[in-house]
Amino acid sequence: MKKNRYITLLLGLMIAFSGCERLDIAGIFGGCTPHHEARYKQSIAWNESYCAANGLEEDCIAHLKARNNAYYEIYWAADLHIQGEGMTVMLDTFVNLAMGDYTVDGITFNTGDTCDAVIFAGDIIDAKNNYPVFYKHIEPLRKAGVPVFCTPGNHDLCFGQWTEYVDYWHTSCYWFDITMPNGTKDLFISCDSGDATLGQKQYKWLKNLLERKSKEGYRHIFFFTHTHMFKRDSNNAHGANYCVEEIYELTYLFSKYHVDYYICGHDHTHEETTYKNVVYYTIGAMKDSYLGRAAYMTMTVYNTNGKDAAPVYLELHRMSGENYFSFED
Amino acid sequence: MKKIFTLLLSVLTVGSLSSAIKLDTFPDINPGEHSVVEFKTEYGFNDVWGHHANFDLGATIPIHKHFDLIAGAQFSTANVYTLNVELDTKFLLTRKHHRELYFKSRFMPRFVVRSEAVEFNLALGLGYRQDYVNIMIGTNIRMMDELHRKEGMHLNEMIAETFYPAYFLEVFGRPIDCNWNISLRMTNLGDFQIERMWNPIFSLAGRYDPADHWRVSLRAECKPAGMFNMTAGFFGVNVIAGCSYTF
User: Fold this and answer.
1) Which of A2, A202, A299, B165 is geometrically suited to a Cys-Cys bond with A40, CB 3.0 to 4.6 A?
2) B interface mutation test: which of A151, A197, A229, A255 has the most B CBs within 10 A?
């Protein structure tokens, strides 16, 4: 009898927490989002039909060309955790900046110099019913013709939100490249690590892709996903990351195939580590409640001749509403 | 890095000594521990290593009535080699229900040859054991490095992660002195693996003592990924069968 009471209490608490649509308790035990293997399968199926229809290589969703002769620039953000219309100040500022609109002391300057692409490294929303808000606020990027890419975070997937994610982004496991005017090109790979694992099939996919692409003369390889690899500070306890076996396997893989940068979110604090010649870069959160310490990152990659190492500048910018300051990291 | 090592070593030494001092103030009604040797074989599967087998050797050596030295080694067909050294300081509070308090300090180097990496784990914990429950809380730190550091890679760093909480909770079906028992366990401290706090390892275990000195055991372990991400998924399993002999 006493045991039944405990079980009822436990179930009641689970329902209560899940009912607030912030904390997906059921997700701790599997939840209602499709398993990572199912998501991988669905992504690859979409890739196949999309690539066949557009005459693209397997799992490639875009071939971009740098807009500028000397360099290209990508804007990165992660962990926005959008929670309704009132929580989009950082996102709006970020979108404006990506489109070349700067606001200084209340005066807006439109340079008309948009960036080459925008990448969101997961957790774009916080919980249910926020996808429409996010999509509405990034619409100016779409209208301006700025390519936008995304990789799913755990908050984008819990409560069974994979359906909403995939309706808009179509795939979570893909690659694209950017070609400079002199023909040198850089590779960008996205994987779904929302479950804090790539899973067996996606891991094999990544391994095969890197093996194939590392022979094609790419100047730089950038890998982006949501989950961070290392946690060296104790600033916050956010986020489960990979099991240790997967960390060793992935770091070995990235080193072996000369991946230059692993860029991610998940941990809300910026961190940069070089391990086995690969830079592991955690952007940090760009959520409204992080006034003054919300961050986004700009990546500027300069042109060089041939396969020589080209300078890559990663700049971390701190944001405080519409007035922001930045520093070079 | 030296500071971290020195700090941990100091904590370990002071902890062990302070426990030893306190021990004498409690009635020790269970002196004279015995040495134990054990052998285990494991079938393992996970998303990145695939199917593999592990072979474990271990020994428990009582070096004092309150101190046990536990040493073990694991050889894996996945090309991973692990050593484990533990110093357990323990004292029995009461014989009834076998109430015991213990302090555990652990050093576990792991040579992940397949990934050209090495890790050093240090864990400290304070635990309480009685007939039906074994609970421990503590902390652990992990240092990771390349197995063979190449010259000229001066930018590369040895990764020293932050201190993580370590925990161990095991619930038994029968009292400790029965000749068979079953248990459920949740921990981030495996026999030859130390996980981060948010990657718990769940186990269902059983043991049977068929004769004096002999014990056989069977355990199934499951390690999910992403439980704390609210999007849990499967990562790996282990099935461990073993036997031990008590001298």
Assistant:
1) A202
2) A197
Helices (H), chain A: 2-19, 25-28, 36-54, 89-98, 131-137, 139-143, 154-157, 162-169, 200-213, 244-256
Domain that holds residue A24: 1-31
Distance CA B38, CA B56 (A): 8
Instruction: State the pLDDT at residue A250.
Output: 96
* Type of residue found at B239: V
Q: What is the CATH number of the domain that holds B55?
A: 2.40.160.40
Domains in chain B, number? 1
Residue A106 clears pLDDT 80, i.e. is over it: no
Mean pLDDT lowest among A43-52, A292-301, B29-38, B40-49: B29-38
Nearest CA in chain A to B150: A276
What the block records as the tokens of B143 is 């240092």
Same domain for A111 and A165, yes or no, is yes
Same domain (yes/no): A11, A72:
no
Q: Three-state SS for B177?
A: coil
In terms of domains, do A103 and A227 share one? yes
Strand, helix or coil at A97? helix
Question: pLDDT for B170-206, tens place per residue?
Answer: 999 999 889 999 999 999 999 999 998 889 999 999 9
CATH number of domain containing A222: 3.60.21.10
Is B160 part of the contact surface with chain A (CB cutoff 8 Å)? yes
Does the structure show a pLDDT above 50 at A223? yes
Mean pLDDT throughout B101-105?
A: 94
How high is the pLDDT of residue A16? Answer: 56
Would you state the pLDDT for residue B190?
92
Neighbours of A15 (CB within 10 A): 11
**Mean pLDDT over the full length of chain B:** 85
Helix (H), strand (E), coil (C) string for A266-308 = CCCCCEEEEECCEEEEECCCCCCCCCCCEEEEEEEEECCCCCC
Question: Least CB-CB distance to A157: which of B49, B231, B235?
Answer: B231
How many domains does the structure of chain A reveal? 2
Cβ atoms A265, A122 nearer than 8 A: yes
Task: Give the integer Cα–Cα distance in Å for A272 and B86.
Answer: 34
Domain extent, residue B143, equals 2-246
Residue pLDDT, tens place only, A66-80: 988 888 999 999 999
Half-sphere exposure of B87 (CA within 13 A, CB side): 16
> Over 90: is that where the pLDDT of B152 sits?
no
Contact A195 B232 (CB under 8 A): yes
Sign of CA dihedral A63, A69, A71, A76: negative
Asked if B246 has any chain A CB less than 8 Å from its own CB, the reply is no
Rounded to 5°, angle at Cα B232 from B231 and B234: 140
